[in-house]
Amino acid sequence: MKKASLILLLCLIFFITFKKEEQPQKIILPNTIKVEITGGVVIPGIYELKQTDTIAVLINLAHGFMPDADIKMVDLNEIIKNKKYHIPFKKSEVEKNYKYDLNSISYDELLSLGIKENRALEIIIYRKNKPFETLEELLNIKGIGEKTLEKIKDYFYIR
Q1: In what order do the strands lie in the sheet with 84-87?
Q2: pLDDT digits (tens, 9 = 90+) for 47-78
Q3: For the Helix-hairpin-helix DNA-binding motif class domain, which residue ranges apply (predicted)?
Q4: Cross-strand bridge partners of residue 35
Q5: Strands 156-157 and 100-101: what pairing?
Q6: Domain 31-90, what fold?
Q7: Overall average pLDDT of the 14-21 stretch
Q8: 107 Cβ contact partners less than 8 Å away, ≥ 6 residues apart
Q9: 153 by DSSP, 3-state: which?
């Protein structure tokens, strides 16, 4: 009996000691996307969000805005549409007075002015087909209405 108990105890110790470690399962959340945020946020980076989350959720994950972030063009209620967002910084008085030629401004410069990625791309595509002749032609860009035009028109001129 003692011999059987001893063998049973040794088998138990053996199985406990050499038990194969189970690999942790990766939890894949349904309907999630990875979104990068850069610029005027406390912790820029890549965050995993639900496809139904808003910009406000992304900003919250990035621990909020930096004090010098230019948030006037940020719509916190907008549902996440892009995989990358850039929050521009406020321009100094000298930079605010600097104007860009709408027919030659780069994509990155448009982003630095607070124009969203999709709109910046639409501006570049529009002018490749037909150069801008007036600032009011920005109203032909999807997503740019009267209010947005009022906010951004002072940054541009037409050559």
Answers
A1: 45-50, 32-39, 84-87
A2: 999 989 999 999 999 999 988 888 888 899 99
A3: 136-155
A4: 47
A5: parallel
A6: Ubiquitin-like (UB roll) (3.10.20)
A7: 62
A8: 120, 121, 124
A9: helix
> Quick one: pLDDT band at residue 89, thresholds 50, 70, 90?
confident
Per 3-state DSSP, what percentage of the chain is helix, strand, and coil (rounded to 5)?
40, 20, 45
pLDDT at 20 over 60: no
Residues comprising the chain, all counted: 159
Query: Which CATH superfamily does the domain covering 91-159 fall into?
Result: Photosystem II 12 kDa extrinsic protein (1.10.150.320)
* Domain locations in the chain as residue ranges: 31-90, 91-159
pLDDT at 93: 47
State residue 54's pLDDT score.
Answer: 94
